[in-house]
Structures are given as structure tokens and as C-alpha cells.
Design a protein that fits this description.
The structure holds two protein chains of two kinds. Chain A is an alpha/beta fold. Chain A contains nine helices and twelve strands. In chain A, the strands form three sheets. A five-stranded parallel beta sheet of chain A has the order 2-1-3-4-5, with helices on both faces. By secondary structure, chain B is of the alpha+beta class. The two termini of chain B are 76 Å apart. Classes of the chains: A alpha/beta, B alpha+beta.
Amino acid sequence: MVTETHKIHSESDPQMRLLIIEDDRESADYLVKAFREVGHVADHASDGEEGFALAESGDYDVLVVDRMLPKRDGLSVIGGLRDKGNRTPALILSALGQVDDRIKGLRAGGDDYLPKPYSFAELLARVEVLSRRQGGPAEETTYRVGDLELDRLSHGVTRGGQELILQPREFRLLEYLMKHAGQVVTRTMLLENVWDYHFDPQTNVIDVHISRLRSKIDKGFERPLLHTIRGAGYMVRDGMK
Amino acid sequence: MTAIGKLFRTTAFRLTLAYLLLFALFAASLLVYFAWNTHRLINDQITTTVDGEITELSDLFARRGLRGIVFAIENRALRPGANLYLITTPAGQSIAGNVSSLAPGVMATTGWSETAYRRLDDPDSSNHRALVKVTQLSSGFRLLIGHDLEERRRLFDIVGDAAKWSVLIVVVLGLGGGIFVASRVLRRIDAMTGTTQRIMAGDLSGRLPVGRSGDELDRLAENLNAMLERIEALMTGLKEVSDNIAHDLKTPLTRLRNRAEEALARSSNEAEYRAALERTIEESDGLIRTFNALLMIARAESGQARGNMDNFDAAEVAEGIHELYEPLAEDSDLTLTVKTATAPLHGNRELISQALANLVENAIKYGKPAITDENSDGAGAAAARDIVIEARREGDQVLLSVSDHGPGIPEADRKHAVERFVRLEASRTLPGSGLGLSLASAVATLHGGELQLGDNHPGLRVTLALPAAAAEGLAGQTGNVPQKSA
């Protein structure tokens, strides 16, 4: 799995500094190793107190916080950091995967929530998106990838100067993909962020939407921009970059 | 002893005791008041009569002298039931009257006093008491006039007896009543306690006895029984879940293990290992999905998701799901359409969306029409490929339905189809956990509604029938599905 991650990792991303607060030694070692293999720097704290101290003093891009921790609960760690004005993006890992637990986590100051068991590809994609969020460019009004342009105000999409007609949902889908251009976006991330549903469909419903979008933006053009990343999700990227 | 101790400790018995004390005090104070007033009345009567005679006789003495008064006293003393009379010389010697003896010193002091006495005409009588008044006449003679107190004593005896008997009756009746009521209550409570102990020991089918009187204990028993019913249902559900987990998760787990074992034993190159690992991950993802669905069902059934409810329009949910699944249906050579009218609901939007999504996924998977001569071409064929999502309000119900023109489910199988992990024979070859309908059913139950499987002539119509929310609840809530900003 770890060797696979080279393929799913968004290579254009700069190196990130991560703090993993997780009490299970084996999971933590696995995460640290996996993140290092894809080129990020990862530190580890094994309980809530240590995690809080490290997160407060260290300069991290993203925190990965287990919900249930010895000494101090994960939500309390995040809440404590927010109270002190620390806005480092935090992703909550939890064995409690239900809708209301997720809402509780986000309300406590978490930025994303991933129920266990998760795949590393999913975690990596989410962490990279979170990291981009921090200190990233202000919300732009126009997204550009190669010759594809999306105007968020007029809802116009053009490729090579030629106007493309998208359905409202296709527009939102493309908008999300282009906002995270160069990053892997998983199917569940799309379902959550574009449709606001938090369940796993038993069918390949997202793939069908993607293939419709692809037929509109890539069909008839020489260079494909919307790529399928095997075992992970999708990415919008100018292939030549 | 413990049985009696238990009886005495009951609330009913203690209340009875308190009332008993209260009533005894009440009766006693009533009697005391009565006796005191009577006593006063009798004394008043005596003093008036005695005072009158003293005035009369003093008057006679003044007018007719000693002889006159002695004559009058002798006369009066002989009348039956008469007052007491005595006249003495200044030396204390009796001159006339009907008194043979007095308590010593009575004649020495003038004024009112109470004394024991003996009459001349009744020398054996003892214990007679009288209220007497002694007056000093001129030239040292002393006159005593009094009245017997026997009447008063008898009255007091009557009152005393009444007090004794009434207290005795109050105590006996009160204690008896208290013991009767307390033991009745205690018997019923004991019956309840016995049942609850049996239930605690593990026999969940036990129910409390309910009488016919409809009193507070019966109401309590009825409510406890309803609670036990619910607990039993939950426990049965839990047991089913764990049985199903044991049964249906073990099969894929075994498969997973076998594949891993086989890969270890047989694979000779990296590509084969890789393929085996990929299959393993796929299989475990399926397991996780099944597990999540089971947890979701358990949560919906236990009512835990009730905390997350708000008001929304079921029409929006139907449109949202239609929008999500429409391309998928098209890829499967089906058309997915939606018909909606405002249908206000109060509930968990996420769960209802998921339930509806499951129904639509089922319709897309299983709802393809069988090819027959009638529908193999033309307009009939197009209509037969139509899957309809419908949201509407009917009376106080909101109906969210998905109809297809597939093979449907035979009436006999419908009840069975909702159960967990049930995959009807025809569907065994298609992927899926067999939990879709169970989840939809659990979500319906959570919202106080039900999942109905019906005939679509031909095909299947699955309906989530949920209680509608009050229409005003939707005010300010009619916007689009809220979207998390990306």
C-alpha cells in the first residue's frame, strides 16, 4: 500500500509538516512512515496532552487527530487550540463514523472528519486539501487549468476560448475539482462537498457523473485535464505540467 | 415476622397510622369539649339553686328567728331528692338538717366548697360528694346548703365510657383497614417485584399483572409493560444483529482469509501477490460497508439519531437523489424521473436521503423489465424502463416512493425482503450487502412511519410512509439543499 502511494500522491504539492496525534502505536507508525514516503514530514504524539503541547509550539500545516486519546480527548485538544487562536487545520480520525459524531467533531473546531477504517489514499487526499486551505490564495473568482477556465461569478466555463455548457451540478463538480487542481480528490470528498451527502453509495454513482463531465470538458481536445487516479479518485491537472 | 415488618413499613400502613392518630385526637378533643361544657352547665345550675335558697332562708331567719328557719329546714330536708341542709350553733353543734357527717373543716370556712358527705336518711351511702355553700348568719349560727354531685359524676362516667369505646373502635377499625389496604397493595407490589426479578434474571417475556380497576398501580403496570415490550424488541433486534454479524460477516471474512492464505501458498511473482492484495482490499472495503450499514440500522432502530432532526421538504430530498442517480440510471439504460409536491417532514434529512438512495439503487439494480414481446419495442418499452421517484403529501402522511417496472417481489416474499441480509433468490448474483431495504425500513420506523412494498403492475413500488410535519414548521426552510462550501 505504501509503495502505491507514490501514484496517488499529488506530486505538485509542496512538502507538508504534519502532526499525527494517535495513541495506537502501530497505526501511528504506519501513518508516519506512509506520509514520509510520499515526501511529507510527520511527527507523532501518543496522547492528548503531548499532542496539544506539540501542536501549540510546532509549526504544522495539518494536524491528524484521533478522537479518543489518553489524557485528553481529541476534540478537547482541537477546541483548546482554537481557543488559543491556533487555526492549524485539523482532521479528526474516529471509530465513531456516524453523521452526528461528524457534526460534533466539526463543531468542536475540526476541519474534516474521517471515520475509521479509512484508506491511506483517502486520508492523504483530504490532508493535502486541508493544507492547501491554510494560507492558500484568497478565494479566486476564476480558476484556470491549462486552457480550461471557470468563472465562479458568471458560472461560465470555456476551454480554449470555446464555451462549454454545463448543468448546475456539473459546474459545482468542476468548480470543486478545479479549486483543488493538482490534488487528488476522492469519491467520498466529492459526494460530501458537491452533493452534501455523507453515506457511501453501493454503486459507482460518482464515476458516472465524472464521466459525463469528462465528456463535456475533455472530449475533442487533445490533452485530457480530468484524470482518474487509480485506487484514489480524480484530479484535474494540466498533463504537461 | 419479616412479612409483618414489611406490612408495617408500607406507605399505606403508615398513612393509616397517621390518620388514626389524627382521628383519635379529634374524637378526644370533641369529648373533652363536651364534658367541660356540661360540667360548667351543671355547676351553674347548682350555684343558682343554692344561692336562691340561701337568700330565702337568710330572709326567714331575719324575720322569724331560729325557730322559723329550723322549722323550714326540717320541712325541706324531708323532701325526696332534696338538697343538703345543715344549721349549726356558733359552737358548731348541729341544730337541724339532713346531713349526718361532712369532711372536717367544711363548716369552719364560709363560701363554696366540694365535700364528701353522708345523709341522715341514708347512713350507709358512702362516696357521695356535694357542692356546698356555707353562710354565716347573724349571732354566729352557720347555714350550709348544698347539692349532690351524683348526676355530674354519672355524666362524666358516660363521657369517659364513650371516650374509651370510641378510641377503641377507631383504633380497631383503623388498624384493620390499614392492614387490609396495605396488604392488598403489598400483594400487588410483591407480584410486580416477583415479575421484575424474573425479568432481571433474564426472562424478558415476563409481564406485570394488570388488574381491571384501572387505578394508579394498573396504569403503572401498563406503562412498565409497554416499556418491557420495547426493551424486548430492542434486545431481540440486538440479538438478531449480533447473530447476523456472526453469520454473515464470517462468510466474507473466511473468504478473505482463504484468499490471503492461497496467495501466500501459491503466488510466485509480484503481479500475483499484487492481484491478491488488491482483491483483499476490495473485499475488506465491502466488509466495512456492510458493517457501517449494520451500525446505521442499529442506530436508527435504537432511536439514537433522533437528536439530529429538523424540518425540511421531502420534495427537495427526492429531487436531490434524482439529480444524483439520474446519470447512473441512464447508463443502465433506464430513465429516472421525479414527481414532487411540497411534503413537509420533520426528521433526519441525511438518513431519509440515504434510505431513498438505497431504494433508487435497488430499483436501478433490479428494476429492469423482463424483455417480452409487448415491451420489446416502441413506446411501451420506453415506459417500462421508467423508474419514478415520487414525493407527495397525503393527509397527514408524506409518501416518498420509488416505482420500477422490473420483476417486482411476489406478495409472499415482501415481508421477508425487508429483513437484514435477505437477498431474494433472483438477486444473489448482483453485488450488494442485502441491507438496503432493512436500512430504509429502520429509518421509516425511527420517524414513526413504515416501509411499504407494493405492486406497480408490473414491478415494485417501495414507499416510505412518514408522518408529515406541521406545515408552518417549514417557514424559512424552503431554500435549496444546504451545501457545505467547498
